[in-house]
């Protein structure tokens, strides 16, 4: 099992450019999440998908869109990147059990100039 | 909304014990977690505790929960240089398949 994979690992964009961050999991998990991590602010939830076909806003959804393409894949799109979106982005997934925890991908380090 | 707070930095000498503290505000928190993040990597679950427990021990790790004060701590015995990382406290009222609120993270530096 690869667990949770993310691509790309690093990306530099210019202000106004668009891009899609890809995430896939092979653990047959129902729920998937996108977080951003900024120094001194911990992890903040951008969007999550409780199950295939559903998505919901998290704490900081502005400037982002998501697609739950199928059970395995959950992508995050920046339509018009801004310097404030410079961050490290983590995808996570979890199963349905009460004791199930979140499994994290390795992260995508994004810089917007 | 829910809030989880941690101090940002802790420095200890190799071989000493480390204690990382966390406070949370959600009185309905049922599951509380500790995650470890090594440089350049994602978060990995270290341990978790249910709200009906006061203490959980797992090898060098001891988790203490004070529900009255909404205080959670992680003690690492015999701290090693490989324990240097950022440690995140997290909580959820309903289990890991629901939204989880993370703390800001505590960076642990182990001095040889």
Average predicted confidence as pLDDT of chain A: 92
Helix percentage range of chain B: under 10%
The overall pLDDT of chain B, averaged over residues, is: 89
Q: Which structural class best describes the helix and strand composition of chain B?
A: mainly beta
Outline type of chain B: globular
Strand content of chain B: over 45%
Q: How many whole angstroms does the radius of gyration of chain B measure?
A: 13 Å
What does the main sheet of chain A amount to? 7 strands, mixed
- Give the overall shape of chain A, derived from the CA principal axes: globular
The tally of helices of chain B reads 0
Structural class, judged by helices and strands of chain A? mainly beta
Descriptive report:
- The complex is a heterodimer of chains A (113) and B (112).
- By secondary structure, chain A is mainly β.
- Chain A contains no helices and eleven strands.
- Chain A has strands at 4-7, 10-13, 19-25, 31-38, 42-49, 56-57, 65-68, 74-78, 87-94, 103-104, 108-112.
- Chain A is globular and about 40 Å long.
- Chain B has strands at 4-6, 9-13, 18-24, 31-37, 43-50, 55-58, 61-66, 71-76, 85-92, 101-102, 106-111.
- Chain B starts with a strand and ends with a strand.
- The interface between A and B is medium-sized, with 27 and 23 residues.
Summary, kept brief:
Chain A is mainly beta and 113 residues long. Chain A is built from no helices and eleven strands. Helix content of chain B is 0%, strand content 55%.
């Amino acid at each position: 099992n690869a667990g949770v994979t993310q691509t790309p690992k690093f990306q530099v964009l210019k202000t106004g450019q668009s891009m899609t961050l890809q995430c896939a999991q092979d653990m047959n998990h129902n729920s998937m999440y996108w977080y951003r991590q900024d120094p001194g602010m911990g992890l903040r939830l951008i969007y999550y998908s409780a199950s295939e076909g559903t998505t919901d806003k998290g704490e900081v959804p502005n400037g982002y869109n998501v697609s739950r393409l199928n059970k395995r894949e959950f992508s995050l799109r920046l339509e018009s990147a801004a310097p404030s979106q410079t961050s490290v982005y983590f995808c996570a997934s979890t199963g349905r059990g009460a004791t199930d925890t979140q499994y994290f991908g390795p992260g995508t380090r994004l810089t917007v100039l | 909304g829910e809030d989880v707070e941690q101090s940002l930095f802790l420095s200890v000498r190799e071989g000493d014990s480390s204690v990382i503290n966390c406070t949370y505000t959600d009185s309905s928190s049922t599951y509380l977690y500790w995650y470890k993040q090594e440089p350049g990597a994602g978060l990995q679950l270290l341990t978790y505790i249910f709200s009906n427990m006061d203490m959980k021990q797992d090898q060098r790790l001891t988790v203490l929960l004070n529900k009255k004060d909404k205080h959670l701590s992680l003690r690492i015995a015999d701290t090693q240089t490989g324990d240097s990382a950022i440690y995140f406290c997290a909580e959820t009222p309903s289990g890991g398949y629901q939204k989880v609120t993370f703390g800001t993270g505590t960076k642990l530096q182990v001095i040889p």
